[in-house]
């Protein structure tokens, strides 16, 4: 069985499905057996979802497209 420390260290890879299949399975098994780690992973996941700055930034092209579409919708004065 994985150690709690390993779960904490690899939480990010686990949630990103970056671990090997067997590792992922052992991880899940640990979470079933260990309520501390299960709670840690839940909180880690919530934190990941709540931090938009961890997502890649919009490119200049995307920003321009959005700004153009706003201009199109704005009432002309
Ligand atoms: Zn644990």
Given the helix and strand composition, which structural class is it? mainly alpha
The helix fraction, in percent, is: 55-70%
Span between termini:
68 Å
Task: Quickly count the domains.
Answer: 1
Strands, total number: 0
Largest sheet composition: none
Molecular shape: elongated
Task: Note down, in words, how this protein is organized.
This protein is mostly helical and 77 residues long. It has one domain. It is 69% helix and 0% strand. The protein has helices at residues 4-9, 11-15, 21-33, 35-49, 60-73. α3 crosses α4. The longest helix is centred in the middle third of the chain and has 15 residues, at 35-49. It starts with a helix and ends with a helix. The model has no long low-confidence stretch (mean pLDDT 87). The structure holds zinc ion. The site of zinc ion has 6 residues, from α1 and α4. Zinc ion binds next to α1 and α4.
Kindly summarize this structure in a few lines.
The protein is mainly α.
Q: What distinguishing features does this structure have?
A:
single chain; 77 residues; mainly alpha; 5 helices; elongated; binds zinc ion
